[in-house]
């Protein structure tokens, strides 16, 4: 889960370049997002399709995140919810950075699936334990600005 806005990382400076290739290894489209100097979210790529790559010139102190384009559920980049690029050491190729599904509990996987099938208005009609109602009604919303360098 993303930290709150008070704890959210932010870009610090642009002294050390890094050259990365984001590779979507999930089975759904993802949005690739930079966290700017104010901690604001700037979407650099919208709907990076499964199996596709996105080349990005960035900096070591610039954090990146990604989420499922449809559900806004966080995914991991290089095994972390917040990715900080590795410094460029003069090599001829970019650093491959993999975007993957996070490891979730069976309960969280089931909640995500039910959310995708049922609107918030229909949740209380389900014959499920009452303590699951609130969890199913929660829908993530994100305030993000688009910097359309690619995607749809």
TrEMBL record:
<comment type="similarity">
    <text>Belongs to the VHL family.</text>
</comment>
<dbReference type="InterPro" id="IPR036208">
    <property type="entry name" value="VHL_sf"/>
</dbReference>
<dbReference type="InterPro" id="IPR037140">
    <property type="entry name" value="VHL_beta_dom_sf"/>
</dbReference>
<dbReference type="InterPro" id="IPR024053">
    <property type="entry name" value="VHL_beta_dom"/>
</dbReference>
<protein>
    <recommendedName>
        <fullName>von Hippel-Lindau disease tumour suppressor beta domain-containing protein</fullName>
    </recommendedName>
</protein>
<dbReference type="Pfam" id="PF01847">
    <property type="entry name" value="VHL"/>
</dbReference>
<dbReference type="InterPro" id="IPR037139">
    <property type="entry name" value="VHL_alpha_dom_sf"/>
</dbReference>
<dbReference type="InterPro" id="IPR022772">
    <property type="entry name" value="VHL_tumour_suppress_b/a_dom"/>
</dbReference>
<feature type="domain" description="von Hippel-Lindau disease tumour suppressor beta">
    <location>
        <begin position="10"/>
        <end position="87"/>
    </location>
</feature>
